[in-house]
Amino acid sequence: MRAAICGDGFRVHARRDNADYTFSVRILERLIGPALQSAGASFDTFGGFYSDPKTRLALQRALGEERDVETWMLRSQVRSASLDDFFDVAFQGYDIIVGFEICPTLIQFCEDRGKKVLDFAIHPYRFLPDLVMMARSPNVEVQESLNAIECFVNDFPRFIPFSKDSIGRIEKSVGALRSQLGSGSKSIFYIQTRFDRSKFDGKGSYIDDLALVRRAGISPTLYKPHPSEPRPEIELELRKRGAVRVAPDWNFYDLVMAFPEIECISVSSSTLAEAEALGVRRVSMLAGTPWAIKGLERFSSPSSSSVNLAYIPIDLRFTSVNFWKAVLGIGGFSRSVTVGFQPDVLRAAWGQRWDFKKQ
C-alpha cells in the first residue's frame, strides 16, 4: 500500500519570488507519518510540484514552465486534459493521496480515477484550547472513518484565554474608542491578503476584494488591516468612506470581546465564524468561502466547479494507527468516546503562524 502526502503543489508565495509553499505538508507528514507506516503503508512526501524531482519534469512536459500566483489559481481550480496528464504521471502507483489543503482539481481527478484522497485543513476556531483539524474525502469508506473521529467543537469553552493584566491593558483604549465612535450602529471591516484560497472564484481566478467593496457599497465605521500583508489600496478606499483604522496593538480577539455589538464584515475571512462563536451579534461575509465546513455551512458559497464536500472537524485520533488502518481498508474503526483536547499540541506543531494572538 503506497500513499502520497502533498499539499497544493501549484501554490507559490506571492511575496517571496514565487517560492514553493510547502511547510504545511512537512508538518502534516510528521503528524501522520508514523501511524501511516505502522498501519502498513509506505509513503512519499511531495514538495512544490515545480521543484520536487518526482514531479518537476512531468509538470514541464505537460503544462510548461509558468510559475506564478495566477497560474496557481488557474491550475488549482480548472481541470484540463494536460493537467490530468500531469496528475496521471505524478501520482501513478499510489493507492491514496493525503494532503493539506489539496487543490480542488486534484481531489476531482482522484474521484474520477477511483483513487482514495483525504484532504486536511485547520478549523477556523483558533481560540479553542488547541487547534482542531478538519478533513474531507469523496471516498465513502474514508468519510466513514472521518465520521467516527468527529470532534464536536461546540462542546468546548468559548472564551479567549486572558490574564487580569490584559483586561487593564485595553480598558482605557476601549473607553476612548467608544467615545470617539459615539452612539448608533457601528461596523468593522477585516482586510484580507490579496491572494487567498478562500477567495477562489471557481473560474481560475480570485475575487477582487477592492471591486467587491465598491460594489457592495459598505461604509464601515472601523477597519483592521491584515497582520501580515499591507493593503494600502483597500485602506484608501475605506478611509474615503469614513472608516477609522484600528490601533495596531489591538488584535482581532480584543475587538470582538470588547465590542460584541459591532457588526463584523469581511470578504471571505474565517474570522467571522469565530466572531459569531464568541458572541458577536451581526456578521456579514460579502462572498463566502468556496468550501463548506460542517456546522458552519452558512459561511460558504461554493461555485459550480467547487469540490462538493464538507470538511468535518476531527480529533487527535487522526494520528492513530487504527484510524489509518480503516482509511486504507485493512481494518475496522468504530466510533468511541471523543478524545479530549490536549492543550496546544497541534498549535505547537503548526507554530506561531496559527497562534490566535497573532490575528
Structure description:
With 359 residues, the protein is α/β, with parallel strands linked by helices. The protein is built from 13 helices and twelve strands. It has helices spanning 23-38, 56-63, 69-77, 81-90, 104-113, 140-148, 164-181, 209-216, 232-240, 252-258, 271-277, 321-328, 345-350; strands spanning 2-6, 42-45, 96-100, 116-122, 133-136, 187-190, 222-224, 244-245, 263-266, 283-285, 292-293, 310-314. The strands form two sheets. Strands 2-1-3-4-5-12-11 form a seven-stranded mixed sheet, sandwiched between helices. Helix 1 (23-38) links the parallel strand 1 and strand 2 (42-45). Helix 1 (23-38) crosses helix 12, helix 2 packs antiparallel against helix 4 and helix 6 (140-148) packs antiparallel against helix 12 (321-328). The longest helix has 18 residues, at 164-181. The two termini are 41 Å apart. The model has no long low-confidence stretch (mean pLDDT 87).
What topology does this entry show?
Elements: E1 2-6, H1 23-38, E2 42-45, H2 56-63, H3 69-77, H4 81-90, E3 96-100, H5 104-113, E4 116-122, E5 133-136, H6 140-148, H7 164-181, E6 187-190, H8 209-216, E7 222-224, H9 232-240, E8 244-245, H10 252-258, E9 263-266, H11 271-277, E10 283-285, E11 292-293, E12 310-314, H12 321-328, H13 345-350
Parallel strand pairs: 1-2, 1-3, 3-4, 6-7, 6-9, 7-8, 9-10, 11-12
Antiparallel strand pairs: 4-5, 5-12
